[in-house]
Amino acid sequence: MSQLDFDTLRKANEARLPLFKNKHGNLAHSKSDGSDWSPAQWLQAVVGELGEYANFRKKYERGDITKEEFSVEAEKELADVIIYLDLLAKQLGIDLGQAVTDKFNEVSRRVGVDVWLAQQLFIDGPLSIGLREGPADELQAALDRMVKVVTTAVELRREKENADPTALGEQDRSDSGEWAVATDDTARFQGRLPARSR
Description:
By secondary structure, the chain is of the alpha+beta class. The protein folds into 2 domains: 6-97, Helix Hairpins (Orthogonal Bundle); 118-191, no CATH class. It has helices spanning 6-16, 39-61, 67-91, 96-111, 136-159, and strands spanning 120-122, 126-128, 171-173, 179-184, 187-191. The chain has a 5-stranded antiparallel beta sheet, covered by helices on one side. The longest helix has 25 residues, at 67-91.
């Protein structure tokens, strides 16, 4: 699964929006933040992309295109839905990542399922501490994990300049050259340490 998050998508949408051109090569928006379109117009864009997905699904169901052809097009159209949905949320002042987290956890509580989306804290990098609503002892355990992660993060930041990556514990490296230090299953700190040579 991709590691894309809503914050990254929002920043990319905000950067591209003032540069976006229509098929005639003209800027698509007269206002760089997209506010020249009303929320209703951004909703039309979302629904339009859902309609394009539905059209490809119809063609697949009646045998006009193969499953493989449908999968390629479905991926593109559903991606467009998410992109436009974020732009709509932006116009409404909604943090889509937080809204999804809150709603998912609200439904989990309502239906009695112990599956939660973790909250995120940021200390010069993402820090997932597994905080969620629940019994007091579970929240205390989450806070204890947070203290453990923050302590580990601070120690690693202090050692950063002369760090030996093999001596820092259980680690992995992303393609971007960031090290992730896993402290337990529900908490992770991603610090910016020198990339290891392969």
